Queue: 4 jobs
Job 1
Amino acid sequence: MNQTFFFYDLETSGLRPSQDRIMQFAGQRTDLHLKAIGQPFNQLIKLSPDVLPDPTAVLLTGITPQMTLEQGISEAEFLKLFYDDIAQPGTIFVGFNNVRFDDEFIRFLNFRNFYDPYSWSWQDQRSRWDILDMVRMTRALRPSGLNWPDKDQKPSNRLEDLTKANHLDHFSAHDALSDVHATIELARVIKKSQPKIFNYLLSLKTKKAVAEFIAKNLVFVYTSSHFSSDYLHTTIVTSLNHEPINDSTIVYNLRYDPRPYLAMSKQELIKAWQFSKDPALLRLPIKTLKFNRVPAVAPLGVIDEAATARLDLNMAEINHNLELLNQHKQAFSQKLKQVVADMDQKRQVDQLSLKLEPDQSLYSGFINEADARLLPLLRSTAPAKLDEFRLKLNDSRLKNLLVLYKARNYPESLNDQEKQAWLKYRKTKLNQPVLEQYKEQLSQLYQQTTSKTKRVLLDQLASYLDYLEKLD
């Protein structure tokens, strides 16, 4: 089976994958040599009337709800195109920070439209990759061949800064198709100047490959946004657990003396693990490395003399810290497993207490096999008959999604009872306090800008708000 890349990017109504929506999807297929295959894909997706776009997102992208309604297609129509034309067998989905952002939007999009949220990225030999951490690791380990920008006296790995520094075509940052072309151009430069890093990290795109790497390299190089930009987001870590926990491993940053953490109680470790801006609080130099998030990892042998200096690595200290850690590794790792279990349990309890909307509850559990078998039949059923599945489905989340799915994709198919339910849902979600707060936000943004273009966009959002208030 021939593998291909599908570079893609989204413009969204906000930053929350569980609540916000995709407004633009763009992509370009290439072969593994990064040569374009076919025409680019560029599609607006209609914003449903139960969602208010974040004004700052609209000011950034220039995409208004009115544009999506006039030029876009429904989510159900888009997903049919996605599976017919884009998610071909052997496709490697790739973007710039897609694993942490774009891919999450795709998962929630699938879930609320009765598709399996995950199979698009692994079934039929499909997979995913991310250019951002490859860029970070290239900068940290083998920077020659590119110009590396700084911003505010800090290293910048933002796509628009990188393309500008390297004179790459990027005609409109924050337009999805422009960002796709820019990402491909940047990938071509790295593949040409540092092919070993490009090909090596590509070989680690599956969770199986990452798991095998961890099993062979208990001490290794790891590049992640979790680590400080002071040393280019790159450090040397060691895996603390012999057996993976839910396809992940806990790693310790060996730049730090482990003795203060070895002495901590379980509660002290939990507090140190959680992020805090308070400089007086000791932060735990621990990270969970998830095998399915295409981490940028490499064996110690990639650290040459230049990289040692660039990353400010003191190998004597790192070896000393490793020796200290190994003396107490079993007990420390056991304590950390209990910490992870306690934190996971608290997250689950917190999630249950949130009373999530049905389409926000993706991570409340997997769809059971019986329901999964029903989903293709449900999607092919005439909209007017979809309510028949309420008795067939077992998962309460899916039952509650039925009316929302019909209303967003097939509003003309709603019966009187469903129309009333949809109206009540929207009025509850977009209640008067929410609308008033939104109006106030628009007013403040209008006063803060003198840009005619931005004021036109804000006027468009005010008009859209009026449209939603009159909609019944």
Job 2
Amino acid sequence: MAPSPQLGLIAPDFTLPGGVLGGENFERRDYTLAGARGRCVVLAFYPGDNTAVCTKQLCSYSSGLEAFEELDAEVWGISPQGVDSHESFARTHGLRMPLLADTDRETARAYGVAAPGIGVRRAVFLIGPDGVLRWKHVALLGATFQSAAKLTEQLSGIKNA
């Protein structure tokens, strides 16, 4: 497994296909980290669509999106499944944040979270509006996740720094 990016340095850029559920439509497009400059971005790497812990994690982030938006932050879920799987996952659970498809795990490798056997470690990276990595948490075991409250607390500190 490659090392995780260093805090205080520019986060590795990437472009991934994905989509976001907006009403009845699942709007597909490419997402580029550099294109989000000016806003904070929460990168939530998760092992798989429609798995118990991932579903609980992403549902909690989706239901708390207003708190992220108040801090001028976007939340992007990233996993190895394709965009069709993400669309089904988003529709089934009413997920309102973009879900990105890292099918070749290149982005997971760049962030040091690609893992043999499970594919991707559960991890969260908070990127400041300047593109700098400000906070991260990489789970050793994927059975738990960082709460939306913990993430918004960290984001609040970034915005006030």
Job 3
Amino acid sequence: MAIQESFADLEGFIANLMQETKIPGLSVMVLKKDEIIYARGFGARSLEGNLPATENTLFGIGSITKSFTCLAIQILQEQRKLNIEDPIEKYLPVTIDAKEEPIRIKHLMSHTSGLPDLGMASVLICRHSVLTKEKMIPFSSDEDVYLHINNAAQELFSPPDKRFFYFNSGFLLLGKIIEKVTNQDLGTVFKEMILQRLKMNRTTFEKEDFEKDNDHMTAYYLTPEGKLKPTNHPFDKFIYAAGGLLSSVKELGNYLQLYLNEGTFGGENVLSKAKIAQLYEPYIERPLESFFGKESYGFGWAITENFFRERLISHGGSTGVSSGYLAFLPEKKLACAVLGNVGNCQGGLVAQLFLAALLGKEALKEHPMLQYETKIGPLLGEYQTYKGINQLKVFKEGLTLKIKFQEEGQPPLTLVPERLTEEEYAFWTPQGPLKFPINFFRDQKTGKVDLIIERSIYHKK
């Protein structure tokens, strides 16, 4: 299938996905070596006025910012202004530490400090965006931040390097270290060290710059009732290093070129080949599996070793009211950026589909997530036992199958897949310490689906 035809199929898929998951606006950019081969917007950057999203629309990129922060740290290390082996207490009044090993800069970069999430990002996002009730925790000064972290000594789960805990507060601290060694605010450092050199002149942390731009998003959140509501994007200096940048897919194309070109952009060397490669070398295995198997984390980047037999480097991000995903295949010199103005714009799936198409795959048929959804699709619906005496509904919540019984007061069952074949779909649901089997059987000729739960057989209506 020609790339143009494949991309056209993906555009139709994106339109349906946006409708089903209520994404107001989405922008996509695909990069091959130094050339943007595809860039366009879908839907509305602002529903009020029905303003279209474009490849130049500014969105909040959330935790994709972490890769920028780690890039800045590497540049400062190359300039010998710091060393990632340095204990963080060398730069900051942070006293929380494991006895065996101090928390070092590299541990913050890789989420291996031994500290779990301390909730700072959640508090600040709720403070600035209408999501949930405000948690009145003091986060208005550097002293508040250090107090919050230093008081969390009992939360230290393990010595550094032993376990992956996604730790937003660690990136806040990295931002403070950058400011300490440069004697400048983080926005200025990013602008001079990265953004201007990559011709990312509209990318910013600042609310004023964002709002005066002629092509910027309106942020939205989904209410519990499933309605989209406009809200404020969370602008706060304590979010900056962990997830505060706003950018467009077009400008992120320049950023991704830096990685595809091994540290150079426009003929200028921004970071040495060895130092930029270190950012996406596996540092620790993540305690989860994607549809493509085990994943690792480096410094501000996730690593998937077997994305259709290629190494995929990626990072997603969400502020709860905007989101995005960057990914690149270093060996193939291919990259993709996706941004949207709602908390989950499905950027990972969309980007992976475009990259799979560029690898010559029939993306909509071969991506394992869509294969899974295709397999479980026939199972969804209403079921009943003999003469309709007992009834239930099989439905999907995210990617998880659930069963809701007709009887009042009986909680839904969550189904965990164990074995999926063409005729038998074996799941289990937890019953205390036990795995209780749930089995579907589908007749390939008639399409008839039966569900066995213990003593009962339910027939799909």
Job 4
Amino acid sequence: MKKVIGALAVSCVLATAGAVLVRAAGMPLWAYGYVDPPPADSDYSKKCTVQRPVDCARGGTPPDDGRKRTLPGGTGEWTVTEIANDYGPVDWYPGDHPKMPDIVAHGDKARGIRACALCHFPNGTGKPENAPVSGTSVQYFMNQMADFKNGLRHTSDKNKANAWEMPLMAAALTPEEAKQAAEYFAAVKYYPKNKVVEADVIPKFAPNANNLFLPAAGSNKVPLGNRLVEMPDDPDDAQNIRNPHSPFTAYVPPGTLKKGEMLATTGGDGKTIRCDVCHGPGLRGLDPVPAIAGRQASYLARQLYDMQIGTRRGLWSPLMKDVVAKLTEDDMMALAAYVTSLSPQ
């Protein structure tokens, strides 16, 4: 099997509520959760020198009003604070997965390791601002943890907190804990909840504090322009209740999927190579190359760009770098949208 690393990776968003973010030259703003270029006078990577909690799950949510939330078929009644407990987030659907290891369900407060389930959800699907990790192989997962730990996996966004705090968490894990998490998420089938819609106008939206695009209240529309905008169909369900089944839609300009299919299936007349050469039939993975079909489009696009400019440079990333070297921002958008449109199962 060719040793080419794919676009999917293990990550955990720990974005701060008030972070000011820096744009790398050429960074596709839409992939990193921006409408306008952010100020360039702050660098979170320089601040993240110690292990410390930051507010991942609740950024941009309303204050806790004490109201208990429920989900159809879900377990119990919980406030938004209880739902997003850093060291014991609510598991709405325990029947979706095997028993979680303690490091996944609760983390370790003494070492500043939040529960994996906080950002990635118990079913491992995550949201666009972080990584979908279910359905990845044990070897791939462990490779990524090693890359984080060894300082080989970062991001183009100097203030995207996951890139600067995930290495600290990876370093704090014991080898056995990392293996437990890897084996757990490898055993969980990826839950398909992402779709792609081509459109000229889309629901009005804005980024929240964690750089997740959220639709605004009401029926107002805005021009999409030449970008990919991914957001939850129901922002309260996805962000406040943290429903791991909550669907997301990636909006792209008309013609994007056709272009993405051409690049992914033919290599675009030498611009890249066919994705299935390494990621397997249906892009469902060939161990240790990850499954990428059906994953979040903006996440996939970030990985393509980070590999292209070298901020993600782990064990196999240099080989992927050659694959993405000639891709334009439009190419990355098209590829990410097409791959997301594929069935993960």
